[in-house]
Amino acid sequence: MTSLPPALLDALKKALGPGGLLTDASDMASYLTDWRSLFHGKAFAVARPGSTEACAEAVRLCAEHKVPVVPQGGNTSMVGGATPDETGHALVIVTSRMNKVREIDPIDNTMVVEAGVTLKAAQDAATRAGLMLPLSISSEGSAEIGGVLATNAGGNNTVRYGNARELVLGLEAVLPNGQVLNLMRRLRKDNTGYALRQLFVGSEGTLGLITTAILQLQPKPKSIEAALCAVEDAKGALALFSAFRNVEPSAIQAFEFMSGLSMNLVNTLIPDASLPLSEPAPAYVLVELASPRGGNSLRELMEEVLGKAFEDGLLSDAVLAESEAQRLAFWKLREEHAEAQKRAGASVKNDVSVPLSAIPSFIERATAACEKLIPGIRVVPFGHIGDGNIHFNLVQPDGMDGQAFLARDHEMMDTVANIVRELGGSFSAEHGVGQLKSYMMPGWRGGAELDMMRRIKGAVDPEGIMNPGKIFPAV
Ligand code: MLT
Ligand code: ZN
User: Fold this and answer.
1) CA of 392 to the centre of ligand 1 (A)
2) Of 34, 99, 292, 471, which has the maximum CB count within 10 A?
């Protein structure tokens, strides 16, 4: 690794102010590795700007010296999207110090929020204002708004409110040349040419660095009902989903699937997580209904649909949350899935989507194919089944060396992806492409689609300095 040209280093220090530039190896270490410890990168330095202006000046200086920039939020990417490569020729720009919720407007139902606010802090601020930010992901305590938007995060409430993309009204971003692009309009209707803000959502930091956003909020629910249900399999889960959807589709706020094996990992490896059902089941559903109206009608709806589903043999057991604490305990069982799998050993994540009707066949075929590929492999599917998004995760067999397992990740990913392709799905439903899955892009998005993405990238970032090595495979 070479060091920064002294003139650039001095200019960056000046632009970023005290504590704004980290160059010490131990200070930088946590920013150079991803949450899953799959990637270990290097960088000249780590910048922590406290404002859009400081951030823009840091990017401008990098552009002038042709130093690549790696934007980073809470560093929770599942695909190495915020980790620099191993050359050391990069500046990581971390948004965590830009962490103000600037404004919440109860008439517009909007929130103006800086990139470094964690998703949880943004949700809490909306709740305090009597509103709701309807985006929820397992890593929300660390994930920051800038990264959540750059990756178009999905999560538990997509089934009702859409992905991050659907919540963005306005955006401010620093372009690869250091210019600030101000798209901070809080308009429901604005039909004036290309919707440039949407170009940044899901671009994984390859077109610019998001610094501020205006998000659409929703009324805070006055009643919420959650139930944990024991079902036979994914087919049973989908039948239950249809049962709710046929009666009151707008009430479904979350509909999550968990296989028996994945739930068992949570139950055994996560302290304070305990299954409230009398017996373990082959699979589970966590369903949550919400309404901005109070009263008992939601509870009645939940009981009516579950009662009928029980009579129809769609579920064998169900527990309704009797308190907020119990509802949160149900969610703990779901949200600790990633952590439990991490504790169980090395894992390969296949974050796929297929049409709802194809999910049972997908799980059956992919399970058989993976078990054939690596005998003893632990197949632990779970996820946002109401969106057709299954985390078809694979945990190393007990006793196998974790590195030897990970060395075969492409074999496993390709085996699963081939089945996904036959069923008309996508190889990445919500985690993005990052550096882990960029090798799949030509096979999946090749031809005119990848070509157009490359031309957009080339037009916005002709020097290729923004988040190199992400989305696009090396040519
Ligand atoms: C989740 O929904 O919990 C994460 O996206 C999943 C994962 O670990 O694959
Ligand atoms: Zn997920």
Assistant:
1) 10
2) 471
Classify 109 in phi/psi space as left (phi over 0), alpha (psi -120 to 50) or beta.
Answer: left
**Mutation choice for ligand 1 from 341, 349, 353, 409, CB with most ligand atoms inside 8 A:** 349
What three-state secondary structure class fits 471? Answer: coil
Ligand 1 centre to CA of 390 (Å) is 9
Spell out which residues line ligand 1, taking CB within 6 angstroms: 138, 337-338, 349, 351, 383, 391, 393
pTM: 0.96
> Distance from the CA of 126 to the center of ligand 1, in angstroms?
24
Ligand 1 atom closest to Cα of 391? 9
User: ∠ CA(461), CA(52), CA(1), 5° rounding?
Assistant: 55
Residue 331 Cα to ligand 2 midpoint, Å, equals 13
Percent of the chain with pLDDT over 70: 99
pLDDT tens per residue across span 50-107: 999 999 999 999 999 999 999 999 999 999 999 999 999 999 999 999 999 999 999 9
Residue 475 Cα to ligand 1 middle (Å)? 30
Alpha carbons within 13 angstroms on the beta-carbon side of residue 81 total 29
Helix (H) or strand (E) holding 145: helix 145-150
ipTM of the complex: 0.96
Question: What does the pLDDT look like over 435-447, one tens digit per residue?
Answer: 999 999 999 999 9
* Chain mean pLDDT for the chain: 97
Residue 2 has pLDDT above 60, yes or no: no
Tokens representing 115?
């990139």
Position 6 confidence tier, pLDDT thresholds 50, 70, 90 = confident
d(C-alpha 169, C-alpha 399), whole Å: 50
Q: Report the greatest alpha carbon distance in the chain.
A: 74
Q: Which atom of ligand 1 is nearest to the CA of 393?
A: 9
Closest residue CA from atom 9 of ligand 1: 391
* Atom number in ligand 1 closest to CA 156: 2
User: 360: closest CA among 245, 237, 231?
Assistant: 237
Nearest ligand 1 atom to alpha carbon 431: 5
* Segments in 259-336 forming alpha helices (H): 260-269, 297-311, 324-335
